[in-house]
Specification:
The protein is mostly beta strands. The protein contains 1 helix and 7 strands, in the order βββαββββ. The termini are far apart.
Length: 87
């Protein structure tokens, strides 16, 4: 019996309160924010996981350093500017 998984859809926004957003499809590995979303990392201010589950966002470019969890509740303001993500 084969198992299937779906990628996580994450909405990442340039402004607080979910304004000016782009959709990111997770790759199940560590991704540098600017490469996957096209938003310079210094501009990501809010976001949410679209359907289910969560992602970890990190202060370092290689999913290292301090992190926080982003889930379906979303964050209108992030605790720090994330540089990388893994879902």
């Amino acid at each position: 019996m084969a198992a299937t998984t779906t990628a996580k859809r994450v909405e990442l926004c340039k402004e607080s309160n979910m304004v000016d957003c782009a959709i990111y499809e997770s790759s199940w590995s560590c991704d540098y924010m600017e490469d996957v979303v096209g938003i310079p990392d210094a501009k990501i201010r809010s976001g949410t996981v679209v359907f289910f589950g969560y992602c970890e966002l990190f202060s370092g470019e290689d999913c290292d350093g301090p992190s926080f969890r982003l889930d379906t509740k979303g964050l209108n303001t992030m605790p720090f500017i994330p540089k990388s993500i893994i879902c």
